[in-house]
Amino acid sequence: MQPVQDLTIEDRISRTQYQYTLEAADGALLEEWVPKLIERLNALPELTDIASDLQNQGLQAYVEIDRDSAGAPRHHARGHRYRAL
Prior knowledge:
The protein is of the alpha+beta class. Helices cover 25% and strands 7% of the residues. The chain contains two helices and two strands. The mean pLDDT is 76.
């Protein structure tokens, strides 16, 4: 049995008792090295339940906001003026 902790300080919950975070500014590097690291860690008999939360097949969307147009005053159909947020 393991104690259950009700308070989580980190922003993500781990599926395992210990967590190691690997970060990179280049997502392609993560896609290359995470599987290699997982394979090497799985080869160590001292470690069990090795898991990864790498999700490299997710959807992406880029939003470009025209700040001049977004900040310009607008007129509602009833004639009331409002400002876009």
